[in-house]
Amino acid sequence: MSKQEMIVRHKLFDRLCHWTIVVVGLVTFLTGFSFFYPSFQWLGGIVGTPQLAKVLHPFFGIAMCLLLGLLLIRYYHHNKWDKYDWPWMKAVVWVLLQKEENIPPVGHYNPGQKMLFRAFVIFVIAFIVTGVIMWQPYFAPMFEASTVNWATLIHAACAILMLIAIVVHFWMATWIEGSITGMLYGKVSKAWARKHHPAMLDDFKEEEK
Amino acid sequence: MAEQDIIRRSGTTDITPASQARVGGVKKVAKLFDATKCNGCKACQVACSEWNDLREEVGEFSGSYQNPPSLSPECWTLMKYNEIEDAGKLRWQFTHSACMHCADPACLKACSTAGAIIQRANGTVDFDSDKCIGCGYCASACPFDIPKISAKDNKAYKCTLCSDRTAVGLEPSCVKTCTTGALRYGTREDMLFYAEKRVEELKARGYKNAGLYNPEGVGGTAMMMIFHDINDPESYYMPKDPQVPMATEIRQDWLKPLGTAGLIATAAFALMHRITVGRNIVEEDQPGYIDAAAEKEEDSK
Ligand code: HEM
Ligand code: SF4
Ligand code: SF4
């Protein structure tokens, strides 16, 4: 097994960025949901008290959005739609059932990941815009009450949707064994790439030349 | 002092209601502001600041006697001055503006913190500032634009209807001070009775549109107002048809249950999938990558 050939999938900068987002995002989500579910206000206890959660949530949120925005910019070129995507998408049921022989090849990212990428782009923008509008006591008083109220609704809806997206992301990351080590240490085996992202190896070949 | 007369409590499910042993004989109360009697003297505004130890900064003159320009964390009762031109004559209309103590309070519905806003058996709405986290959801939901968040301590503040006075049988300090009898306080029933008589009287004196402002959209209010012209509450800076805002209702009544269901369903599906489909492992000893064409050849052998 020591013979297995490894290739780089995530650069050091992106890995640091990703795991920082995970930590900052965890604080943002736990404090945020402590406001959405009053009975679970103790979730905000991750930063101390409910009052501290309210003060710190926007700052963690901004940090999460900026870092996530950075990661999204760096991974943009991997996430354009290409010719592999549509056939793969049609076979998504086989992907979930692990019927390897029925799964068409995909590139660096599969369409599921690309959709998640697009969802994250929308969430980052929506969170920054609505988050600033509802930010007490600094910015909210500058806006009409009804504007702030709608912003609160959109902010909460995006949070629920993004949490669902992250559950899917976590599910896939833990299911596809080898991908978390990839995100942690940067490298995946060629066999892994061949199994999950065969066309990625073509890119890799070209880069090598 | 434990409070045991709470009929509604923010962020609290019906399964675990607030303590309400002492709601039995309590009657609903109301404060009545009669705009047709008010002379704009501001005694109520001063009494409020006196009783509650609030000292809003002295602002600047901006062409109106209204000062400060709006309610604030340090100003819970504000006299509003509206100059109306009526048949070539200038007339002032005064509004004693403060929390309306809605029967169906949007602030309480919107609040994100268990117990930060409560409604007592007597119908008044009170903030428990010690619990408040300063998110401001109440401020953006209130159709009357009443709660204000303090930048000093991140708490929401508004008129309490002097809950610390009424609890011991005193009337609110603004009512106590009112120089013209424009403010009254008593049981809601009495106030409705009085208002009816007063409106009749006004009509007899020629104010055909006189009426009681007790908006239905928020279930009625424990601060009611008598206006010269009930069809034009906007001329008193009061909204025509205040409601619990739609965004607040969607967030609390639809997004929460549906979003939670979606979240749990996704997590459950993921777990079932993991258990039924099983691990997704790469056989590392399977032939490594050569190149697409050669690989295909090999596969077809
Ligand atoms: C504990 C939770 C998480 C785990 C285990 C995890 C794991 C991973 C893994 C393994 C990858 C690489 C996928 C691949 O190589 O194909 C990845 C990519 C990524 N992750 Fe996470 N992640 C987590 C949480 C998050 C969070 C909270 C965010 C954002 C808020 C996030 C944003 C991303 C993004 C943007 C990518 C790049 C995907 C793309 O460009 O399509 N992750 N994650
Ligand atoms: S007027 Fe505003 S702050 Fe007062 S009870 Fe009604 S919604 Fe709440
Ligand atoms: S600011 Fe305080 S009272 Fe207002 S909604 Fe937030 S926690 Fe509740």
Automatic annotation (TrEMBL), chain B:
Biological-process GO terms, alphabetical: cellular respiration; formate oxidation
Keyword field: 4Fe-4S, Cell membrane, Electron transport, Iron, Iron-sulfur, Membrane, Metal-binding, Repeat, Transmembrane, Transport
Gene Ontology terms, MF aspect: 4 iron, 4 sulfur cluster binding; metal ion binding
Entry GO CC: plasma membrane
Subcellular location: Cell membrane
Cofactor note: Binds 4 [4Fe-4S] clusters per subunit.
Domain of life of the native organism: Bacteria
Main location (coarse class): membrane
Cofactor(s) this protein cannot do without: [4Fe-4S] cluster
Binding residues annotated for [4Fe-4S] cluster 3, in chain numbering: C99, C102, C107, C142
Binding-site list for [4Fe-4S] cluster 2: C48, C159, C162, C174
PROSITE patterns in UniProt: 4FE4S_FER_1 (PS00198), 4FE4S_FER_2 (PS51379)
Any one Pfam family match given in the protein's UniProt record, by short name: Fer4_11
UniProt-annotated binding residues for [4Fe-4S] cluster 4: C111, C132, C135, C138
UniProt domain 4Fe-4S ferredoxin-type: residue ranges: 29-59, 123-152
Residues that hold [4Fe-4S] cluster 1 according to the record: C38, C41, C44, C178
InterPro entries in the cross-refs: 4Fe4S_Fe-S-bd (IPR017896), 4Fe4S_Fe_S_CS (IPR017900), FDH_Electron_Transfer_Unit (IPR051555), Formate_DH_bsu_Proteobacteria (IPR006470), Formate_DH_C_sf (IPR038384), Formate_DH_Fe-S_su (IPR014603), Formate_DH_TM (IPR015246)
PANTHER family with a match to the protein in the record: FORMATE DEHYDROGENASE, NITRATE-INDUCIBLE, IRON-SULFUR SUBUNIT
Role according to the record: The beta chain is an electron transfer unit containing 4 cysteine clusters involved in the formation of iron-sulfur centers.
NCBIfam families assigned to the protein according to its UniProt record, in alphabetical order: FDH-beta
Designated name of the protein: Formate dehydrogenase iron-sulfur subunit
Organism per entry: Shewanella fodinae
